[in-house]
Specification:
Elements: H1 3-13, E1 19-23, H2 30-41, E2 43-47, H3 66-71, E3 74-75, H4 88-104, E4 108-112, H5 116-124, H6 134-147, H7 149-159, H8 161-166, H9 172-185, H10 189-196, E5 205-211, H11 214-230, H12 233-242, H13 256-263, H14 269-291, E6 296-300
């Protein structure tokens, strides 16, 4: 089936109340497909990406360009200062508001992104866990300052192995939160999630995505990485560091962390591209694990665009 026929089929079958959610591994081509669907449905693209939501993190996040945003309205993209704190609960509130605005304007909301924790929270809600405790967060910051992030993650491994496997050791906010939940309640974050079960739906959702075999996706990741590095990614990170954003959460994301390490003389230039590709492939494996449990209407890869810098 051609790309246009597949899009026509999605549009024809989509219920009036269904929320269209575009998913897929990074570099699979979600941005291009989101634009086609938005144009076909008079839609608004609502971001679900924990890096694209921050200002100034542009190249390495695959953020839609000005030209792409001119083709269709975008919401929850490029909206936060890089040092602003943000979590899944806030995303759910903001995404609900964005969906409401699009619907009130007579347009179809289309959620698009690769931060599947946010998408899961938007569709199924969040487990009812306790609010943050600033004193605990400060203590965790002190541990990181003296002993490093690996020590904080090691504490999580000891009390909640399941959470430690799904949370990147460098993601201080999520590691700290998982430890905080246990300290406040005596119950692990994984146990809270298991009890919640995420069975009920807040939105009637239709998941659509692009299916690409692993060798093709690997090749797209390599081309995208090379393209971004050749078109200003290193310079973008230099500017971010000079602007005081070294401690921004997005700086710990895949790719940005490696470019920062290169600028800190930790990672040689000759190894930079390969390091980013390896980290991206690891991230893709985690995304694929989540996608296996979803009911996704897949567009097969033969019909999709294969641009020089896929996103």
């Amino acid at each position: 089936m051609s790309n246009s026929l597949w899009i026509e089929k999605v549009c024809r079958e989509l219920g009036d109340r269904e929320l269209l959610v575009l998913v897929g591994p990074t570099a699979s081509g979600k941005t291009a497909l989101a634009l086609e669907l938005a144009e076909a449905l008079d839609g608004v693209v609502i971001g679900a990406d924990s890096v694209q939501i921050y200002q100034h993190f542009n190249i390495g996040s695959g953020k839609p360009t000005g030209e792409e945003r001119a083709r269709a309205p975008h919401d929850l993209v490029d909206m936060l200062d890089p040092l602003a704190s943000y979590d899944a609960a806030q995303y759910v509130r903001d995404a609900d508001d964005a969906i409401g605005r699009a619907t009130a304007a007579g347009r179809r909301p289309i959620v698009c992104g690769g931060t599947f924790l946010w998408i899961k929270a938007l569709i199924h809600g969040l487990a009812p866990m306790p609010p943050a405790d600033p004193a605990i967060r400060l203590r965790h910051e002190q541990i990181v300052g003296t002993e490093g992030r690996a020590e904080l993650h090691a504490q999580l491994v000891a009390i909640d192995p399941a959470a430690s496997r799904r949370i990147n050791p460098n993601d201080f906010v999520r590691v700290s939160r998982a430890l905080e939940v246990f300290e406040l309640t005596g119950k692990t974050q994984s146990a809270w999630h298991e009890e919640h079960a995420f069975g009920e739906s807040r939105h009637e959702a239709r998941f659509v995505g692009i299916d690409r075999p692993r060798p093709e996706l690997d090749a797209r990741i390599e081309r995208r990485t090379a393209h971004w590095l050749a078109h200003g990614w290193i310079e973008e990170v230099e500017e971010l560091l000079a602007s005081g954003y070294r401690d921004a959460r997005a700086m710990e994301s895949v790719g940005y962390r490696q470019v920062r390490d290169h600028l800190d003389d930790v990672l040689p230039h000759g190894d930079l591209g390969d390091a980013i590709v390896r980290a991206t492939r690891t991230f893709v494996r985690r995304q694929r694990t989540w996608l296996r449990d979803q009911d996704v209407h897949w567009l097969r890869h033969e019909a999709t665009d294969d641009s020089a810098a896929p996103s």
